[in-house]
């Protein structure tokens, strides 16, 4: 564990807390893309199938936290605050993302096993999971401050992971091409959002 | 691609 990775994970946690706080405080999930949240839940569930494998207490607790909160957010959006969710704003076609990521995972993976292909699928899917949310923002043209904070925390998390990989490459000789390429694309998507947002 | 020994990142 290094400084970049720990801070990145904490930013990731923070982004989820910000989102939960926004929904609970305003009792509304307006401006939040259910499709993006659904994709994140799929990402966590398919990536953490190795949950029984022990790496560290930190690792296990974080995995449980991410799976639990992502499903809880779906519950809040689809059941508890259902009335505040406007599906007509959330029109991105995620079928294509899911299909393309699955196909890529079947072709480009480290080993052709059930767990490994789904792990790879989750890496590819995470890279593009924010697209429905960005699409929604571009359609409505305006984001609540809190939604911007959410996206900022998520973007910071991704950016810090890039620094973590550079750090690990030099200190541990660590390499993970699949994660690097997907992560670079993911970070680029956020940078694009920040650039547009900053200019406004 | 390069195969990491195991997936230890989140």
Automatic annotation (TrEMBL), chain A:
<feature type="transmembrane region" description="Helical">
    <location>
        <begin position="96"/>
        <end position="115"/>
    </location>
</feature>
<keyword id="KW-0931">ER-Golgi transport</keyword>
<dbReference type="GO" id="GO:0046923">
    <property type="term" value="F:ER retention sequence binding"/>
</dbReference>
<feature type="transmembrane region" description="Helical">
    <location>
        <begin position="177"/>
        <end position="198"/>
    </location>
</feature>
<dbReference type="Pfam" id="PF00810">
    <property type="entry name" value="ER_lumen_recept"/>
</dbReference>
<dbReference type="InterPro" id="IPR000133">
    <property type="entry name" value="ER_ret_rcpt"/>
</dbReference>
<keyword id="KW-0472">Membrane</keyword>
<keyword id="KW-1133">Transmembrane helix</keyword>
<keyword id="KW-0675">Receptor</keyword>
<comment type="similarity">
    <text>Belongs to the ERD2 family.</text>
</comment>
<dbReference type="GO" id="GO:0005789">
    <property type="term" value="C:endoplasmic reticulum membrane"/>
</dbReference>
<feature type="transmembrane region" description="Helical">
    <location>
        <begin position="150"/>
        <end position="171"/>
    </location>
</feature>
<keyword id="KW-0812">Transmembrane</keyword>
<keyword id="KW-0256">Endoplasmic reticulum</keyword>
<keyword id="KW-0813">Transport</keyword>
<keyword id="KW-0653">Protein transport</keyword>
<dbReference type="GO" id="GO:0006621">
    <property type="term" value="P:protein retention in ER lumen"/>
</dbReference>
<dbReference type="GO" id="GO:0016192">
    <property type="term" value="P:vesicle-mediated transport"/>
</dbReference>
<dbReference type="GO" id="GO:0015031">
    <property type="term" value="P:protein transport"/>
</dbReference>
<feature type="transmembrane region" description="Helical">
    <location>
        <begin position="55"/>
        <end position="75"/>
    </location>
</feature>
<protein>
    <recommendedName>
        <fullName>ER lumen protein-retaining receptor</fullName>
    </recommendedName>
</protein>
